[in-house]
Amino acid sequence: MAISTLTSPSDHGLPAEALVEFPDNRLLIDLCGEYDRNLAQIEQALGVQILRRGNQLAVMGDPADQQNAVTVLTDLYERLEAGRPVTPADVDRALRMDRDDGMFDEARDGSQLEMFQGGPVEIKTRKKLVEPRTDAQKAYVHSLFSNELAFGIGPAGTGKTYLAVAVGVSMFIGGHVDKIILSRPAVEAGEKLGYLPGDMKDKVDPYMQPLYDALNDFLPGKQLAKLMEEKQIEIAPLAFMRGRTLSNAFVVLDEAQNATSMQMKMFLTRLGEGSRMVITGDRSQVDLPRGITSGLADAERLLKSIPKISFNYFTAKDVVRHPLVAAIIEAYDADNPA
């Protein structure tokens, strides 16, 4: 149902306010959130004040900020009308996302990515719908579905690996690939861990834990265990990829900045028929010994001009962890400009 929006003149010399009317009062309650936490989140982000008056919300503040707040509120209400929940993460996404989604066309491979003008971008997995929160993330997801080889480069917390694994799971359950292969270099992050106990899996699992965490978000535990037992999902150190041809698979190399140039070349040349490959990395977190060139930097330099290979870049503005993470990254970037 349409939502009427109007600007109301102020009384007593107060600033003008934008009034937004919501037909369904039950949905309005969900829009406001528990103890109006969603409204508070929008107020803090946009510097406006939002007051509830019956089935209307009055937005006060700078006219441009008012309009942005109205846009966010109407987007979230439409989400509720479509039967989808509104969580703080959804509010954050609405605050970040540009409403113009016309830059995206239907994915060519018939995947489960839903793209339509003015609508959401969703990745369907067994446990949840995953939605990009920023324009850069949206472009990245589109690239993962549209290209056989894609790079995601940027700081920690920008969703590079998480979205790549989500797309891999989506394509796997949709029958577009036969297996998922996740890999990363087993490089210690600035500290010596010594000899770890157990068999080979026990020794490398600590390095692979972020990949397990992502998979557990998208697949039920029993199903994930079964798929891993049947080798339909593999998690392995980069060194284990040598000599293989990876066909009909969705392949992710995480923390690629810690691969050497030779390792990167070895990995890239594993790409087989019917496969898609994603390389993710953060150029600011190289843990290789001094004097050894990062394979990610080499690949970026050598492959940028090759058609059908996409490079997607993220900044601190795309961080979707705690807001302090973005502030930390910006502080370090300012101290060490590229």
Topology (elements, then pairings):
Layout: E1 5-8, E2 17-21, H1 25-32, H2 37-46, E3 49-53, E4 56-60, H3 63-81, H4 88-96, E5 123-124, E6 129-130, H5 135-146, E7 149-153, H6 160-173, E8 179-184, H7 200-218, H8 221-229, E9 233-237, E10 249-253, H9 261-268, E11 276-281, H10 295-303, E12 309-313, H11 323-335
Parallel strand pairs: 7-11, 7-12, 8-9, 8-10, 10-11
Antiparallel strand pairs: 1-2, 2-4, 3-4, 5-6
What does this structure look like?
Helix 2 (37-46) runs parallel beside helix 4 (88-96), helix 5 packs across helix 6 and helix 6 crosses helix 7 (200-218). The protein has a six-stranded parallel sheet with strand order 9-8-10-11-7-12, sandwiched between helices. A four-stranded antiparallel sheet has the order 1-2-4-3. A two-stranded antiparallel sheet has the order 5-6. A hairpin with a 2-residue loop joins strand 3 and strand 4. It has eleven helices and twelve strands. It is 38% helix and 16% strand. The chain starts with a strand and ends with a helix. The protein is α/β, with parallel strands linked by helices and 338 residues long. 35% of the residues are buried.
